[in-house]
Write a structure and sequence with these properties.
The chain is of the alpha/beta class. It has 4 helices and 6 strands; from the N terminus they run βαβααββαββ. It folds into 2 domains: about 70 residues, no CATH class; about 70 residues, no CATH class. β1, α1 and β2 form a beta-alpha-beta unit. About 15% of the residues have low confidence.
Length: about 150
């Protein structure tokens, strides 16, 4: 059976990818299972470039066929930001909570300025494109709706 290395150290990403590959005749291998610890610098300016960087590094280190991806959030209300820089959007050491807070703050700020111009409702629609580029095929679209809760 063909072995395929998933080029990620992120347990959440493994959780997302494993079901997509479950019906294929592959023996899925993780870096952890191989004792492989790589931190590939994502210097690309596109998702495809970053995925290629990760795939090449993990393939060289393991000698295995390797699948890598890169993804990010592209918020229409923020002109596509943070995009390929999603992981570093709130700074190199930021937590997921820090990144969410910055993203929501930026979106709310944009929405407030739009709302002041448009009159408006107490609803913030943000359309986020979250490209899950798996072998560079396809894009997933999500609609997140935030609502203010008064206590």
């Amino acid at each position: 059976m063909l072995r395929l290395l998933l080029a990620t150290n992120n347990p959440g990403k493994l959780h997302e990818l494993m079901p997509l590959l479950g019906d294929m005749s592959l023996h899925i291998v993780t870096p952890h299972a191989l004792g492989l610890h790589l931190d590939v610098e994502e210097t690309g300016t596109t998702y495809a470039e970053n995925a290629r960087l990760k795939a090449a590094a993990f393939a060289r280190a393991s000698g295995l066929l390797t699948l890598a991806d890169d993804s990010g959030l592209e918020v229409d209300a923020l002109s596509g930001a943070p995009g390929v820089y999603s992981a570093r959007y709130a700074g190199e050491e930021a937590s997921d909570a820090d990144r969410r807070a910055k993203l929501i703050g930026a979106a709310l700020s944009t929405w407030s300025s739009l709302r002041n111009k448009l009159g408006g409702r107490n609803m913030l629609p943000i359309l986020i494109r979250s490209p899950l580029r798996w072998l560079f095929l396809g894009t997933a679209r999500m609609l997140l709706i935030f609502r203010q809760v008064h206590r």
